[in-house]
Predict the structure.
Amino acid sequence: MIQFEHRPGILDLSWGHPRPDLLPVREWAAASAGLDWRALTYGAAAGPTPLLESLGDPDRTFVTGGASHGLALLTELLSAPGDVILVDSPTYHLAFPILATGGRTLRHIPPSGLAGFVRDLRRGGRRVPLLYLVPTFGNPTGRSLPFEDRRALIEVARAEGVTIVEDDTYRELTYDGPAPPSLWEMAGGAPVVRLGSFAKTVAPGLRLGWINAQPDVVRGLTTLGYVHSGGGVNHTAAVTMAVFRAGGGYRRHVDRVRDVYRTQRDALVTALREGFAGVESPAGGWFVWLPLPAGLTGSGLLPAAEQRGVSFVPGHRFWADGSAGASRIRLSFSHLPADDLRRAAERLTETVARRP
């Protein structure tokens, strides 16, 4: 019935899911209680106006069935089979099959010389329309792109005619102060399109998110075949979210889960530092990007770790071609309470200490 699969005896840090007891079941029911028939009929193509207004400029906002759905729509609209799409490394691994659909080719963003790299690809006859990254509290690292790097990336993308797809799904899960400005905000629109989601802040089962983009992109999204024929995307959930936000329930909920996730982050990071060097405490998001001791790989360590009752995602999965990241693992602190996170860290430390 649900995506998460509990394995008895294993404290599983691989799932980037919210804690089940933090999901706002009663609050969501209260928000939907006063809805009338308009919430259950076909909706406007871009989404219901009350939600669009709460998310910013309605002319530059489109409601989606979550961030992954938004990424699929943008990939379809803004690129074509055979195109090269640039991706950050490491980055969200489940974006790769979405971006690569239909024969599109993924290439890593080079650490320097992005403009020259794009020009070389184009001289070779390849189109390079899109660049995808998670610049704020990224998955898997938890890190954020520095301000000057953000500005430079926008300038290069604008000069080279590349659209930046900014996956901004963790923005509100900030624990040590304000999040950095979004690329969308800094650019004032183009060449950036921004993906947002309520999966992390409210509940993934809503399948609800949004795209911020220039009006011509929004118009293009509304005319995609199944959007046009279906009367908007996830209309009932979108209408309920507008009520949830207008009544203050959204802000109260986000404030509450932010405090809980901060506590869980601190529990995992503190426990890991008892056994590992170089443990970074992410300023936001859901993940710790853990370096392993020399000679160990995530994929090699995983079977022994699961035998001791802890699991994780090996780091190489966050490179589109699996070419790096072998000595890192991603640990999620979102799904388990603090005591379980401490025990998971202890089991991981014992696994490494007793390795052959």
